Amino acid sequence: MFVKELAHDALANIRQAHSSLSERLSRYDPVLLVVAAVGGTVLYANVVRIYRRSEEPLSKRLVAYVFSKVRQLPMVKARIEKEISSAKVEIMHSIHKDDSDRIFIAEIPASGLSNEEVVALADKYNDYGKFAVEDGRVSGAVYTDRHQSHIDLLTKIYSKYAYSNPLHPDVFPGARKMEAETIRMVLNLYHGPDGSSGSLTTGGTESIIMACLAYRNRAHKLGIESPVIVAATTAHAAFDKAAQLCGMRLRHVPVDKNNRVDLRAMERAIDSEVCMLVGSAPNFPSGTIDPIPEISQLGLKYKVPVHVDACLGGFLIPFMNEAGFLLPTFDFRNQGVTSISCDTHKYACTPKGSSIVMYRSKELLHHQYFCVPEWSGGIYATPTITGSRAGANSAAAWATLLSFGRNEYVRRCKEIVSHTRKLVEKMKELPFIEVFGSSDVSVVAFRGKGINIYAVSDRMNKRGWNLNTLQNPDAIHICLTINQAHEEVVDAFIADLRLVSQEVADNADKGNKDSTAALYGMAAQIPDKSLVDELICEFLDACYASPPPKGH
Ligand SMILES: *Cc1c(COP(=O)(O)O)cnc(C)c1O
């Protein structure tokens, strides 16, 4: 009864307010009212549009805006330009430092070189790299030992499929079949149910872009105008790229102390515009696996698709149970998991240029397909972002899976994961180093205890170790491949890390003035990230530039 009375009162109040409002409005010219209403709506829509352009907190956007204005002041601008031009010289030097010839071919030779000459040049260029990949000195990057017999196989396959293109399945039925078989082999590894399907792409980034595109298109069909991706801050940057390319918003949720996504924060982030949830298995920064079964449950509860990013660990996690390591279920056996990305060009050891994106159903995959039915060049349709595809890449991926075989992947998984765990145990004994996140598969991330970890990274680099830099918080990681899965490599790494971290601890400034440390320190203090963008443009430009003369 009470509720009813309350409702009655409320209605009466509204009615009263409405009539007094009408009375007041009747004093105005109706044209003015219409203009004001339309103007107000347009203004409101614009404010909303600008607000929704990004998922960044308003305060952060405001500070960045103010800073970008300060940067326009002539004095500040001159100072920044001076800094950037000196950084530019530094960047050019570092990109080209291994180029011992400083010749640069900028014109196609009028008459072609002989095969011997071309190979000699390629050999010369091949000698530029200085890191000992085969000795396990490089984190990630090359995921296989480059066995001569496998290289020989790939070379034979390449010689047959170099000019094939699965875009034309009628001309290259063999290359098409290889793609189909590769996708199916990986789908079965992930317990793809009846009706599941997928595509072969050029890499993890393309796989992720395709999944985001599919969910965006699905959301549009459901009437969601501006779809949102929900992912942990530790999800791969490819999701930021996908969001930008597909005109979506990426809503980041925090992680817990083990670097696993905070499930409650993820649940709170879900609203009617969310078109997909993301879990990483594992994430790139610390190699930590998000709680996939729980994310899958969230997906089912709110009827939102769930994408599992298994790009990195794609060819480790399916073998972990068999190799003797327990893992929660991460694949399509979770009913809420609707798609998975798995890189074959990482731990499946295929040459770079292959990855698989998988969907629970063909209907989901169809949202990814692209078709122009009325193109003057004929009905045009493609399954992924590319038009013509390198059939040789698909053939090489197919050949690698067949020639390695399941047992070899299980063996490698056992070697890599067990050495990762050994490395973690040994690292825990180091006084100035702290393991960061949960090292669930093959990555070990670590931070400094009272020392600057970036200085450690620089000094490890001088000792021949190429590691990965992380940020928010400051940390570095080593991603173990089969090249690191040896007692000697783990011991050598720990010995160097012990030495270098002690060295940095003995330093008065604890390494804060070392180059990478200084760079990240400076970047962290500047709220306007467009400055970082500018330096990065210089870096990428330097990669395309002709080398500076010797001595520069
Ligand atoms: C490597 C990686 C990707 C992106 O893959 P690319 O092949 O480099 O495009 C995505 N997610 C994770 C977790 C990765 O490690």
From TrEMBL:
Its cofactor is pyridoxal 5'-phosphate. Pathway: Sphingolipid metabolism; Lipid metabolism; sphingolipid metabolism. It comes from Caenorhabditis auriculariae. Belongs to the group II decarboxylase family. Sphingosine-1-phosphate lyase subfamily. One of its GO terms (biological process) is sphingolipid catabolic process. Keywords: Endoplasmic reticulum, Lipid metabolism, Lyase, Membrane, Pyridoxal phosphate, Sphingolipid metabolism, Transmembrane, Transmembrane helix. The modification N6-(pyridoxal phosphate)lysine is found at K346. It comes from the Eukaryota. It holds the Pfam family Pyridoxal_deC. It is a single-pass membrane protein. Its main location: endoplasmic reticulum. It is found in: Endoplasmic reticulum membrane. GO terms for cellular component: endoplasmic reticulum membrane. InterPro entries: GrpII_AminoAcid_Decarb, PyrdxlP-dep_de-COase, PyrdxlP-dep_Trfase, PyrdxlP-dep_Trfase_major, PyrdxlP-dep_Trfase_small. This is sphinganine-1-phosphate aldolase.
